[in-house]
Specification:
The protein is mostly beta strands. Helices cover 15% and strands 43% of the residues. The strands form five sheets. Strands 1, 2, 3, 4, 5, 6, 7, 13, 14, 15, 19, 20, 23 and 24 form a 14-stranded mixed sheet that branches. The protein has a three-stranded mixed sheet with strand order 9-12-11. It has a three-stranded mixed sheet with strand order 17-16-18. Helix 2 runs antiparallel to helix 3 and helix 5 runs antiparallel to helix 6 (284-300). It is globular, with a radius of gyration of 23 Å.
Length: 371
């Protein structure tokens, strides 16, 4: 086992080699999960005097990993090696590898199938189970659309991307992600963000819900590009396939986390999406949802904050709602404009070097712009 009980613990196995990396031999391990229905990625570097490990260190082999805060709350992961190297240094070997969560067929194997009539959310949860993901307990069970979904010789990853973008619920949007322990996470963002925040990031923690960040958070605004591209809402022409009549849909979803009621658009030219034909066997809500989801999710990536905390393993998840508290000029009575509610878009956990403070977690937080 590597780590400190009550803070973080991790162990690795490959083949019949159990817990084969000693704490002092691990140079670096990092695993990253990100919103967007993406498989988690990872990398590792360690040294070993065990020459028989060379026989196991091959592309396509699976590393079984367990990690958590203590031995009673360990999560099991399966990591596949996609690229590796072995270099001899003196009488020991340096093993290096990078890879993905061990479900390559999810992104590599195409399928042809028809599912329905079901709501998009129902199909997504079913496909997640079919691909051996665990359906997250907080996933919604249905959306306000119903269609027959055709998968035409594409991978389940691409098919699920397509369906996520077409899940409909009035004044809401849907987002998906895959956790490092293999859970498929799907969120109805309006409903999810109506709940209390899960953690508060601060430089002065007061309770267990507070996480103390180190160094200065890095803020970035991309609102100019995002709003011009899709944040203001692209007008979508919809052609009735029976009558030939045309109507236009412009997304009017209110922001989820920003305090403003609507996004202002001065001096912006009209932007349209390609026209789509509405046939009798297509639920119009799936067409409306595509515009709504694009607009809402692009807005939600307008402003970002990157911060890091150390020696604390938390059950933090993609799309978790968090509060960021920044004192302006170190004045606890004055709050920075960067403070407020954010959602988690990326989680990177890393063990690096030696010493007491070798475990760190970096998160990317996102929210809409205030202008």
């Amino acid at each position: 086992m590597i780590g400190v009980e009550g803070t973080y613990i991790l162990s690795f196995s490959i083949g019949d080699k159990k817990d084969f990396i000693r704490s002092e031999d691990l140079d670096e391990f990092q695993i990253v999960e990100e919103c967007g229905n993406l498989l988690p990625i990872w990398k590792i570097s360690f040294t070993s005097y065990d020459n028989t490990l060379v026989n196991y260190w091959n592309e396509g082999n699976t590393i079984k990993m367990s990690f958590g805060q203590n031995k009673d709350k360990m999560k099991d992961l399966r990591l596949i090696i996609t690229e590796k190297s072995i270099n001899q240094v003196g009488n020991k070997n340096v093993f290096v590898a990078i890879g993905l969560y061990d479900l390559l067929e999810f992104v590599n194997v195409p399928h042809t199938r028809t599912l329905g009539p079901y709501s998009g959310v129902e199909v997504l949860n079913a496909l997640a189970s079919l691909n051996k993901f665990t359906v997250d307990k907080n996933n919604p069970t249905a959306s306000s659309d119903k269609d027959i979904w055709h998968q035409n010789n594409i991978t389940d990853k691409k098919f699920m991307d397509y369906i996520i973008s077409r899940c409909y619920k009035k004044d809401s949007a849907f987002g998906g992600g895959i956790s490092s322990d293999g859970r498929f996470i799907l969120r109805d963002l309006r409903e999810w963000f109506s709940k209390p925040y899960k953690y508060r990031f601060t430089s002065k923690p007061e309770n267990k819900k507070d996480i103390q960040f180190v160094d200065t958070p890095i803020f970035k605004s991309n609102s100019g590009f995002v709003n011009a591209w899709a944040g203001y809402g692209r007008e979508k022409p919809i052609i009735n396939g029976t009558t030939g009549n045309m109507l236009y849909h412009t997304p009017t979803i209110k922001p989820f986390l920003s305090i403003v009621g609507a996004v202002t658009k001065k001096y912006v030219t009209k932007v349209s999406s390609p026209a789509v034909k509405l046939l009798q066997n297509i639920d119009p809500n799936t067409i409306i949802a595509q515009s709504n989801n694009l607009t809402a999710l692009s807005r939600l990536s307008s402003e970002s904050c990157q911060l890091t905390y150390i020696n604390r393993f938390d059950e933090i998840d993609l799309f978790d709602l968090c509060m960021l508290n920044i004192d302006e000029n170190n004045n606890p009575n004055k709050t920075s404009p960067n403070s407020g509610l954010y959602t988690v878009g990326l989680i990177s956990r890393k063990v690096e070097g030696t010493g007491v403070f070798r475990f760190s977690t970096t998160v990317m937080l996102f929210r809409e712009s205030s202008n």
